[in-house]
Amino acid sequence: MAKAFFRLQKILRRTQFLLFFLTAAYLMAGSLLLLQRTRLVIQQGSRGTSSNQALLVPEEMGRVGIVDPRALQNPRPGPRLLVGMDALQESALDQRHSPHWLTSRNSELRQLRRRWFHRFSSEQEPLQTAGFKAMKHTAEHKGTYMGCFTHDARERTLKGAVFYDLRKMTVAHCQEACAERAYSYAGLAYGAECYCGNTLPVAAAKPEECSSECKGERGSVCGGVNRLSVYSAEQLRAAARPRRNVIYRGCFRAPENLTDTFPAFLIQPNLTVEMCSEFCSKKEFPLAVIRGQECYCGYPTRRFSLREGMDGLRCSGTHNASSTAGAEHCLVYQTPVQDTRCTDRKFLTTKSKVFVALSSFPGAGNTWARHLIEHATGYYTGSYYFDGALYNKGFKGEKDHWRSRRTICVKTHESGKTDIEMFDSAILLIRNPYKSLMAEFNRKYAGHLGYATDRNWKSKEWPDFVNSYASWWASHVLEWLKYGKRLLVVHYEDLKQSLIPKLKEMVEFLNVTVTEDRLLCVENNRDGNFKRSGTKQKNFEPFTQEMRDLINRYILTVDEALRGRNFSGLPREYVPR
Prior knowledge:
About 15% of the residues have low confidence. Helix 5 crosses helix 15. Among the domains are: 95 residues; 75 residues, no CATH class; 198 residues, Rossmann fold (3-Layer(aba) Sandwich). The protein is 42% helix and 14% strand. The chain contains 19 helices and 18 strands. One of its GO terms (molecular function) is sulfotransferase activity. InterPro entries: P-loop_NTPase, Sialate-O-sulfotransferase, Sulfotransferase_dom, WSC_carb-bd. This is WSCD1 protein.
């Protein structure tokens, strides 16, 4: 008995030792692997200033947002660039700025940016969450809760402003937004959608059917599926009045029959702009039209399109409505009310047979073009990427798989041969590279609506960014011209200057039929939610002469390539002469 017990004890001791040895070996192997990876990162970072600099790893890329251009220079023989500049006569410069070299460089840049983009997006999520937690304690809704009502997206009762915040929507946020737009009621649905109006919905629903929690405020109810939680915004309207923007649109020739053109009117002695704007806002019209003591409310239409403004002197040279504007002319103001004739959007009911890309270099206005296309066609646009900030503000196609074919077109910044040939056709959006580079630099360091700090602009990051991304701007266009199957080239500057004609071209290219009134509605809502407020003036010139020489060579290369494919060249405003 004692021998058997002794043998068992020896076996258990050996087993213990074996388990201990295996555990130690496993931990040592993991430590060695971790040290090896750390050493790789340090080595790559330390080589950042050498002449043979390695590409930055994703962690370093996320920190600075750029890659040293010397890391990407891999000159290969290419055709000489016929740009008519003495500085380009040397063969080394020909190789460095040739389409072949730009293509190889662009492939590496795209991979780095894709990694940076996903890391940046993941870092933004906790920041947004933390920011909202701080706001949550101070946000308390004001006004009377009117009840739970039925909600039909196609036949809405609250037909005023509509906006989304799929992450931070609160009752107070919706109420304040509606009050600033001069609406009396604020309704919330699906936990994230806000609707405004001046007429209370008729069809009431059971209180328990409004059960969706607000996306940005736990414990608060923001409607439900096809249900609206409606609150009064009357108490906030007086406080919001000073913040309302009544925008002067100009002096225009009055239509022949104003009462037939405009659905509502008011005749008031001593009429003022504020009185007319308030009247039209209550009637839920985006335009207030004044002729003497007459106030008319309505929308831009074919009969009154606001395209041909007149000299302000024809309207007595003043914005004061108390003076007579003349029988043939009228003053036009934009009220805080949103034009909702083009705000309804949906996914395609059947899969699209033609796979269309909306391709551009970053910072070229892709988000703005998507806003215009969605409101003109009534269909969501998709994205090769996922940008939570865009999704939260109503670009619902962001979360749809980019190859689902349920969207009218798909945003992409990719430009490799394989990436391009996946699409049957594409709208190629091109913008002035000087503006594009600045817009993308702002977005990288301050998001869609912010501005990079002076410290960012004056640091080493900015020249490195220009040297790296300027070549990408050129190669992006060159590759789409080379591999694109069916292209519509749209210049950002032309779209901005002649919105309706260019938007018509884009819509026809997408094989969608739209009404003239819908296009006029888009023009009335042209800016969208992702336009930087004004231009932040810098007291210094961000582009050095060396940067300009580099960018100008790329501009001439792209201009020549466009003309070689029988497209119109780049806009004259930024082609070097």
